Inverse folding.
């Protein structure tokens, strides 16, 4: 999954009870994290947690590192622990939702992404993850709503909402809408590794639509 890092000025309220020594270790970890020294950063974040187990920001950072390294179950555990101490920690929710999707746990992903989207309805990533969760569950109308919302906020989103919308329209047999979404994807991502396959699908779809049109002509 793609890692989404906390905002620069985000301050979790629970950090107010964290001792200064733990914060110092956390800041050292942040410096190593910024330098992409993830193992070094993790060492400092763990030290911070030894001093303050409730330090949700440190738990979040360890989750981000685990996610970056594709240790998905470990990442999910860290994000859940961060949420135990800070239930409204938006970045923990968003990243947990992404990890659950990567683990194909659509049901829990939907529940988590619903919470994230409620907190920040204008974040395209939350909308994309929620839409994808609903698609995996076969809740097509709800998936369409949130994926369209994603497109309105960020047409070039990482989850490729046009491809997901095309999937919905394909399941409904709406070939014209499916073709429109695939065309839009190719316009936005002409150099994507998916572009060749999408173009091939689009060509077949257009051919089918042409044959269908010709078949109904008098």
């Amino acid at each position: 999954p793609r890692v989404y890092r906390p905002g620069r000025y985000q301050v979790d309220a629970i950090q107010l009870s964290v001792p200064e020594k733990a914060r110092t270790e956390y800041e050292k970890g942040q410096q190593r994290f910024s330098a992409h020294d993830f193992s070094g950063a993790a060492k400092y974040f763990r030290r911070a947690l030894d001093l303050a187990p409730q330090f949700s920001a440190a738990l979040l950072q360890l989750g981000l590192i685990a996610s970056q390294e594709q240790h998905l179950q470990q990442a999910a555990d860290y994000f859940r622990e961060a949420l135990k101490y800070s239930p409204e920690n938006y970045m923990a929710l968003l990243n947990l939702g992404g990890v659950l999707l990567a683990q194909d746990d659509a049901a829990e992903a939907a529940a988590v992404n619903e919470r994230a989207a409620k907190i920040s309805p204008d974040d395209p990533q939350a909308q994309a993850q929620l839409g994808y969760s609903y698609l995996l569950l076969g809740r097509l109308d709800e998936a369409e709503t949130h994926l369209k919302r994603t497109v309105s906020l960020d047409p070039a989103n990482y989850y490729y909402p046009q491809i997901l919308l095309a999937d919905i329209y394909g399941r409904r047999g709406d070939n014209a809408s499916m073709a429109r979404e695939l065309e839009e994807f190719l316009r936005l991502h002409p150099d994507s590794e998916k572009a060749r396959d999408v173009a091939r699908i689009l060509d077949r779809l257009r051919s089918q639509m042409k044959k269908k049109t010709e078949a109904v002509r008098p």
Summary: The chain is about 70% helix and 0% strand. The radius of gyration is 21 Å.
